[in-house]
Each structure stands twice: as structure tokens, then as C-alpha cells.
């Protein structure tokens, strides 16, 4: 029962965070007047990645969103299946969780290869390695680790 409550709590936190992830202000165009000191140099002081970063970030973030959403949904199904003594459904959910993490890792590697920005390329490669270390033991995966990984990408990709 505690596991089910934990799943519900994690689901609420992740979906709340996912809803806020799109609440970013629109970036100023390079020729737009700036409201504060420091001019309008794109990415100045923000740590934002350059080059083809918008496309790479969007693809990497979408892959992360899909992986976490699948993880949460399938974990809920797995807990319900275990509670109902349905080993087949529990194993199916476990395999889907593993596949979601594998797909996320592959997407991070692919986008790391595409990234022109060195900082973004390195971050994506590091994230792919970290997702790979999560393994396939669903009981050992820390849900907060998934969110922390997504936040690292969001920080670099925010403009």
C-alpha cells in the first residue's frame, strides 16, 4: 500500500513539474529591444546552449517526457498487477518501463551526436550514461533521479 501511495505522489509531482516545464517566457529576438541593462545578446549570462540547440533540446526533452510518463503509467500498472497477483501483467509493465528507459537513452545519445553546442553535447552524453546506469531493476530506480535528469536538461535548454 505504501508503494501505491508513493506512486501516486510521484505521479502528481512529475505531472505538476511537466506542466510547468512549458511555462517559459518567449525568447527575445536578436533585434528586439531589451528591457534591462546588458543589452539583448542572445543567451548572454543565461547558460543557454547555441547552434541547433532548440531542435536538439526539443527532441531530448520530448524523449524525457515520454520516458517519465511511460515509467509512471507502467509503474502504476505494475503495482496494481502485483496487488491483484497478476504476474504476467506485472512483468509486461516492467518490460515497458525498461524499454522506455532504453529508448530515452538512445534518444539522448542520438541528440548528443547531433548537438553543435559542446556543453549540450556533453550534457546529453552524460545523461545517456546516467540513464544507462539506472538499469532495469524497477525497484531500484529512484523516481527523483528521473526528475533530476530532466531538470538538468531544462536548465541548459531554457532561454
TrEMBL record:
Residues 19-51 are annotated as: Disordered. The keyword Signal applies. Residues 1-21 form the signal peptide. Keywords: Signal. PROSITE patterns: PROKAR_LIPOPROTEIN. Residues 33-50 have a biased composition (Gly residues). This is Uncharacterized protein. It comes from Micromonospora citrea.
Amino acid at each position: 500500500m505504501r508503494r501505491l501511495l508513493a506512486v501516486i505522489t510521484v505521479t502528481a509531482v512529475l505531472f505538476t513539474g511537466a506542466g510547468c516545464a512549458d511555462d517559459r517566457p518567449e525568447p527575445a529576438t536578436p533585434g528586439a529591444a531589451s528591457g534591462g541593462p546588458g543589452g539583448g545578446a542572445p543567451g548572454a549570462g543565461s547558460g543557454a546552449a547555441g547552434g541547433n540547440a532548440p531542435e536538439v533540446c526539443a527532441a531530448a526533452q520530448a524523449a524525457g517526457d515520454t520516458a517519465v510518463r511511460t515509467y509512471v503509467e507502467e509503474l502504476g500498472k505494475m503495482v496494481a498487477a502485483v496487488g491483484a497477483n497478476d504476474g504476467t501483467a506485472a512483468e509486461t509493465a516492467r518490460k515497458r518501463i525498461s524499454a522506455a528507459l532504453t529508448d530515452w537513452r538512445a534518444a539522448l545519445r542520438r541528440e548528443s551526436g547531433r548537438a553543435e553546442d559542446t556543453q549540450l553535447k556533453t550534457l546529453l552524453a552524460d545523461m545517456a550514461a546516467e540513464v544507462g546506469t539506472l538499469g532495469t531493476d524497477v525497484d531500484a530506480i529512484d523516481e527523483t533521479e528521473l526528475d533530476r535528469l530532466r531538470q538538468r536538461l531544462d536548465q541548459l535548454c531554457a532561454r
